[in-house]
């Protein structure tokens, strides 16, 4: 069973450690004492919590979409050349690059510093285990 430290949960959910501690205090997550007396949260419980939050966010979306992978970020670079534009977005620790028509980039008024959401729909997703042998 995977046990995650509060700091790991915070990193995964892109919130502060204090936010995770508040969730524990509010009873939204359950922390126990792990090795070294550190507070840990069961990985399966974190996964269920993430699903619940995700479902609430999808219900609040301004319009329905079949794409489930939405990464909000900031445009860091836009290269326009002829009919195409290459747009780079930094969404948390993730760098996404999109090739689109120049017309689309112009209509969206994409420039470095613009806030944007990368919506990803793919038929191939490669999954790697983050920390081999870390499960207890």
From TrEMBL:
Q: Does the keyword Transferase apply?
A: no
Q: Which GO terms describe its biological process?
A: molybdate ion transport
tRNA-binding in keyword set: no
Instruction: Name the InterPro entries for this protein.
Output: HTH_17 (IPR041657), Mo/tungstate-bd_C_term_dom (IPR008995), Mop_domain (IPR004606), SinI_DNA-bd (IPR010093), Transp-assoc_OB_typ1 (IPR005116), WH-like_DNA-bd_sf (IPR036388)
All copies of the Mop domain together span 64-129
Task: List the GO molecular function terms.
Answer: DNA binding
* Entry keyword set: Molybdenum
Which named protein is this? Answer: Helix-turn-helix domain-containing protein
Protein species of origin? Cryobacterium shii
């Amino acid at each position: 069973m995977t046990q995650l430290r509060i700091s790991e949960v915070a990193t995964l959910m892109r919130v502060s450690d204090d936010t995770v501690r508040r969730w524990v205090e509010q009873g939204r997550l359950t922390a126990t004492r792990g090795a070294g007396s550190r507070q840990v949260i069961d990985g399966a419980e974190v996964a269920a919590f993430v699903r619940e939050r995700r479902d609430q966010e999808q219900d609040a979306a301004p319009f329905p979409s079949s794409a489930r992978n939405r990464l909000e970020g900031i445009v860091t670079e836009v290269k326009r050349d002829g009919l195409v534009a290459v747009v780079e977005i930094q969404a948390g620790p993730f760098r996404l690059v999109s090739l689109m028509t120049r017309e689309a980039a112009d209509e969206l008024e994409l420039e470095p510093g613009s806030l944007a959401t990368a919506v990803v729909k793919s038929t191939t997703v490669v999954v790697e285990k983050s920390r081999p042998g870390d499960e207890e």
